[in-house]
Structures are given as structure tokens and as C-alpha cells.
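# step 3/5: fold
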Amino acid sequence: MAQILKLEADLQLKTPADKLYNLLKTQNQHVPKVSSDKVQSVQVLEGDWETEGSVRLWKGTIDGKVEVFKERAEVDEANKTITSVAIGGTILDLYSSYKLTIKVASKSEGALLKISIEYEKLNEDAPPPNKYLRYVSNIVKDIDSHHAN
């Protein structure tokens, strides 16, 4: 029986929590401008930038290799949580399931962002998705640097 595993990281950011949450939830199309060395394109395949259930295709460079990630977006407004469920792309070459969740919380100054990845390996040899956790963390840091003021 397969096992669901989990990785987590916390980031302290300067951008106010409400602003950061709205940027991450509805403005993914701007990520390639802010983090062009990591993300080359993001496009909507079904739905739009704001609607839960929308499907987006990301193309980016991770550890020097171009990868694609097809996601279905889920949003929990009450908890300021955004979840991306993998429904296609390079990541599914290693994992039978992959779910990235970003939760934004307010701090006295800025925001605390919790990133978690729940995944199930396709086989025992598949590495944990540490590179994807670093990748997403670095993109969020780029967004924070761009929007903190």
C-alpha cells in the first residue's frame, strides 16, 4: 500500500498577508515577470486566474532542467490557503500524487507563509520533492521582494 508523505517549510515575508494572499491566489500570470529565471510561462487552460477549479500550465526551470506542471487550483478563503493539485506534467514522472499547499498568515509586520507538499512516490527510488519545495520557496521570495513595498 502506498504512503502519503509530507514536506514543509515556513517563510517569514515582508509583504502584508492580505496582499500576498491575493497575489498568489489571482495573479499567477505575473510570476514570469517577477521570477523569470525560474518561471518562463503560466497559462490558463480551463477557467480563469481567479476561479477555484481552474487548470493552469506552468513551464519553468528547476535545477537547470525545463519542466512543466499542470495544476488544478483549490482555494480556502477562510484559512487563506491555496492548493495546487498536480494533474499532469513532469512531476508525475516521479509521484503518483502531488499536492502543494500554501497558507498565508498575518504577522505584526508582513506575513508567515507555510508551504507543504503532500506526495506519493511512484516507486521506492523516487527522491522526496525537496527541489520542488526549494523552487516554490524561491519563487515566493522573488514575489515578496518585488511587492514588499
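# step 4/5: annotate
Residues 130-147 form the longest helix (18 residues).
# step 5/5: archive (pending)
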